[in-house]
Write a structure and sequence with these properties.
The complex is a heterodimer of chains A (325) and B (527).
Chain A lengths: L1 H32 L5 H6 L8 H11 L5 H9 L5 E2 L4 E2 H36 L4 H14 L3 H15 L17 H38 L3 H8 L4 H26 L6 H6 L5 H11 L2 H29 L1 H5 L2
Helix pairs in contact in A: 1-13, 5-6, 5-8, 5-10, 5-13, 6-8, 7-8, 8-10, 9-10, 10-13, 12-13
Chain B lengths: L1 H18 L8 E8 L16 H8 L6 E4 L2 E4 L2 E7 L4 E6 L13 H13 L10 E6 L4 E6 L6 H6 L7 H4 L20 E7 L4 E6 L10 E8 L3 H6 L5 E4 L4 H6 L3 E4 L4 E7 L9 H10 L2 H9 L4 E2 L23 H10 L3 E2 L5 E3 L2 E2 L1 E6 L2 E3 L2 E3 L3 H12 L2 E6 L2 H9 L5 E7 L6 H7 L1 H4 L12 H12 L3 H18 L2 E6 L3 E4 L30
The chains are: A mainly alpha (325), B alpha+beta (527).
């Protein structure tokens, strides 16, 4: 019965997500159009090239026209995301070239901060009031108040500039022949500081959320029952208390993952790390509408997909949610 | 004894090897250049972005007839050239050793073809309106006939126009979609190998058959970094643009610091097509209200030079030292405003006919030589104008938004800036007249003074250097009196490089091509 209920309950949800996807496609099409200025103005107006009125007219005719929503939609369904005016390449190829770096950096940092925040939060909540808890709570509260830009600059100054242990920019040593393992090491070496910066930004929130949830959960009767049954403290902590404390963290992770595309612009800028965030920033500056649309659409669909996935993850973590109608 | 002498000689030899910079004949493995944005389009005339760094990347691959170094014009594809006034023609003798990257020889046919091709498919960097035709009069002699004398020809055409290989481009109908490997076959010192759009890096490889000599580095790599200190100190880059704040640190680290001449100016644009800016006296009041040195001191910690009100740089060969100037004088500014009928209210702000004198000032982070340079110019100017009694709404906006509004004349005051003021005096026509500078938001597009308009045209057609100088002097005088836009200051243009690689970088006299103030002249890696 439960599964049947879930299936019928999921139909309107799927329809709602589909409708939301269509709205997002429309918004991603219209929104960039509302930006003041156009590609020709952005590229040429204050450049070294002084266009005559005739040259400008000609360029506008060649590069200034925009597509209609109908055509855009048809192209999308044929997997044609358009052509970047500035980079002279298909939008899909630009997005696909930048996406892996963004995913590596942001999803990697999210995963690490999720695990760290979870374990530290569980342990801190379990040991509430102990010196370990007080130390963690204090340091995390301080870390939560430090913006990414400060952590990034500090890490660069110490580990790159002063000690020379890590590179100051980029995602890999450009144009260097290396073995597979050498390349892997090089990528990890470049990734270290940006990833630590982002992880440091994400961990405190995760920790505080889990700790507080743990503190509330540990006061529940089922925890007392579990202890009375003689379960080990680790089992009580992780199988009973932490599982219930996990739900808010998953929600937070979902919200954070939704910003995987644009959430790392600051870190991408500080470390000159490639990614969709800085690509979007450049595209907006250049009024490269097809590229803006492509990245905005990817970001919007990702938010939608994450929300959609969370519906199912919630049911897995807490089966009671699946039974609610 | 003999043994000691031998050991001494051996030690000396070893020391010589390790202490001396690499000999000229030894090719370095690579040179790395960093810049903050990284992405400047593909290095081909139709695909590079229309900014200095885009042109410079293209210049490694494509050669022009003439080039410039730190002292002025030098031969590039053309060994020599001369102007024949009777035929109104420039005659260029090409270097017979020049080859395309695919091994074919560069001929006069290619140069003549390029003119025809650019006439058909305009390359916005080169104005060919005064070029009638080009003729290959021999395998290596090309004659370019002008429809009327054109003084900026050597700088803006011969020194800027990349020569295209006829055998490749003759069949290209749409150059903007031509992105095959063949689109990057040039005759410059480097071949284009890769542009990574995600990482925004470029790879060029030496063209060892380059007619002016084998390039000094096998590979030229551009990397992206907005932090020049970091990349220079950690060895990720050998050359980068820097700001004055970076100088002491980089000097300590043994980097060579290059200082450019005044080739870029920050300007205050005024909407002179509407009241009150259409009145020259009001513009004079603003000039006296603005203290150039104070802007430099407060917004740039003293790094910069007050600009000439005549637009051309103070370092330009044709700079008129007698250009009228406006001393900062708030009392005089107030006096002018009061003579125009403005009266002060109880708060100390001017109004006229009951309407307050309130102006909007647009400010944005402007790209200087390819690097974004945030500043506080807007705040300082606002305070200076408010000090004399003009209310100012400061709007800090994104550059394209400011540009769009300036272009449409939908603004009062806007902070803007441009380079090229050390290049050919054609910049005066581009930055003053709407007939030449219609497409530029940095151009005052000012046509209200017929004498000025006439002189701007005349100086472009004057092939006699002395006569042209007199015309350019006069233009600066008139422009400074009209002040349709106020030149504020020249920011300090700097670059730093690692001298251990044995390359001597330099800023080009008059800037690369049309005045690009970037120290990445290809001759640094050739001579």
């Amino acid at each position: 019965m439960a599964s049947a209920g879930q299936t019928t309950g999921n139909r309107p949800a799927a329809a709602a997500f589909l409708a939301a996807a269509l709205v997002l496609i429309y918004v991603s099409f219209v929104l960039p159009r509302l930006l003041p200025g156009d590609f020709i103005t952005a590229m040429y107006s204050s450049s070294h090239v002084v266009l005559s009125a005739e040259q400008e007219k000609q360029l506008r005719a060649e590069l200034g026209s925009d597509t209609s929503f109908g055509r855009y939609l048809i192209r999308l369904f044929t997997l044609d995301w358009g052509y970047s005016r500035a980079l002279q390449a298909p939008v899909s190829s630009i997005v696909l070239a930048a996406l892996p770096w963004t995913v590596l950096l942001v999803a990697g940092s999210q995963a690490i901060s999720f695990l760290l925040g979870f374990v530290m939060g569980v342990e801190g909540g379990w040991r509430r009031g102990s010196p370990v808890d007080r130390g963690l709570l204090g340091s995390m509260a301080v870390l939560e108040g430090i913006p990414e830009i400060c952590t990034g600059v500090l890490l660069l100054a110490v580990f790159s500039y002063s000690l020379g242990w890590f590179p100051a920019a980029g995602a890999e040593t450009a144009y260097t022949e290396m073995s597979f393992w050498g390349k892997l090491k090089d990528v990890a070496w470049h990734l270290a500081l940006p990833m630590v910066t982002l992880t440091a930004a994400y961990v405190p929130g995760n920790y505080l959320l889990v700790r507080n949830s743990m503190v509330l959960t540990l006061g529940e009767r089922f925890i007392v029952t579990a202890a009375a049954k003689g379960l080990t403290s680790r089992r009580i902590r992780y199988a009973h208390a932490a599982r219930n404390a996990l739900l808010p963290l998953v929600t937070r992770l979902g919200i954070r993952l939704a910003f995987v595309v644009t959430g790392a612009v600051v870190v991408e800028t500080i470390f000159s790390y490639p990614g969709l965030g800085s690509q979007l920033y450049n595209a907006i500056e250049q009024r490269d509408l097809p590229l803006i649309r492509g990245i905005v659409l990817i970001a919007s669909l990702l938010i939608l997909s994450v929300n959609c996935a969370l519906e199912y993850v919630y049911c897995l973590i807490d089966p009671r949610i699946g039974n609610v109608r | 004894m003999k043994r000691n002498v031998f050991i001494s000689l051996a030690l000396t030899a070893i020391l010589m090897i390790f202490l001396c910079p690499p000999a000229q004949s030894e090719q370095l493995d690579q040179i790395r250049i960093a810049d903050g944005k990284g992405d400047w389009g593909y290095p081909n005339p139709y695909l590079h972005y229309p900014r200095g760094p885009g042109y410079v990347r293209m210049s490694w691959v494509f050669d022009t007839l003439v080039w410039k170094d730190e002292n002025g014009f030098i031969p590039a594809l053309a060994e020599k050239w001369e102007y024949d006034p009777t035929r109104k023609a420039f005659v260029f003798d090409l270097n017979p050793k020049a080859k395309w990257h695919d091994g074919k020889p560069v001929t006069a046919e290619d140069a003549a073809f390029t003119i025809d091709y650019f006439k058909k498919h305009p390359y916005p960097w080169v104005f060919l309106g005064n070029v009638e035709r080009a003729e290959a009069s021999g395998k290596h002699r090309v004659t370019i006939f002008l429809s009327k004398p054109y003084a900026p020809f050597v700088s803006d055409v011969a020194g800027t126009m990349p020569i295209l290989p006829k055998h490749i481009w003759k069949d290209v109908k749409d150059p903007r979609t031509f992105t095959d490997a063949a689109a990057f076959v040039g005759c410059g010192p480097y071949r284009f190998r890769d542009f990574d759009k995600a990482k925004r890096t470029y790879l060029f490889e030496a063209f060892d058959d380059y007619h002016l000599g084998k390039p000094k580095a096998k590979r030229l790599i551009y990397v992206r970094s907005g932090n020049p200190i970091m990349v220079l100190v950690t060895g990720l880059a050998d050359l980068a643009n820097i700001t004055p704040d970076h100088e002491p640190v980089l000097k300590k680290k043994g980097m060579v610091i290059l200082h450019d001449k005044c080739g870029w100016n920050k300007k205050l644009m005024m909407n002179h097509r509407k009241e009150p800016f259409s009145d020259k006296r009001f513009r004079h009041a603003l000039c006296h209200a603005i203290n150039q040195q104070e802007i430099i001191d407060k917004a740039h910690r003293g790094y910069g030079t007050p600009a000439s009100f005549g637009l051309l740089s103070k370092d330009h060969d044709l700079y008129n030292p007698d250009t009228p100037t406006y001393e900062p004088d708030p009392a005089k500014a107030r006096k002018i405003l009061e003579s125009l009928g403005y009266v002060k209210d109880e708060k100390g702000f001017y109004s006229k006919d009951g309407k307050p004198l309130k102006l909007e000032l647009l400010a944005s982070t402007i790209t200087v030589a390819g690097e974004k340079v945030p500043d506080r110019d807007g705040e300082v100017i606002k305070r200076q104008l408010e000090a004399i009694g003009i209310q100012v709404d400061l709007a800090n906006t994104e550059q394209t938004l400011t540009d769009t509004r300036v272009k449409k004349w939908d603004f009062d005051l806007a902070i803007s800036g441009h380079g090229g003021i050390l290049g050919d005096a054609k910049i005066l026509a581009e930055m003053i007249s709407s007939s030449v500078g219609a497409g530029s938001v940095n151009s005052a597009r000012f046509d209200a003074n017929p004498e000025l308009n006439e002189l701007l045209q005349q100086q472009m057609a004057e092939m006699d250097a002395e006569k042209r100088k007199a015309l350019v002097y006069r233009i600066q005088e008139i422009y400074a009196r009209e002040v349709p836009a106020i030149s504020l200051y020249y920011p300090a243009g700097m670059a730093a490089y690692n001298s251990k690689k044995g390359i001597q970088w330099f800023f080009t006299k008059g800037g690369i091509s049309k005045g690009i103030p970037i120290a990445q002249n290809k001759m640094s890696l050739v001579r």
